[in-house]
Amino acid sequence: MISEKVESVLNSQINKEFYSAYLYLAMSAFFDEIGLYGFSNWTKVQAKEEMDHGMILFDYIIERDGTVKLEKIDAPEKNFDNSLQVFEKILDHEKYVTESINCVASMSEDECDLATRHFINWYISEQVEEEANARDVITKLKMFGNDKASLYHIDCDLGKREYKAHSYK
Ligand code: OFO
Question: What does the DSSP assignment read for 1-56?
Answer without folding.
Answer: ---HHHHHHHHHHHHHHHHHHHHHHHHHHHHHHTT-HHHHHHHHHHHHHHHHHHHH
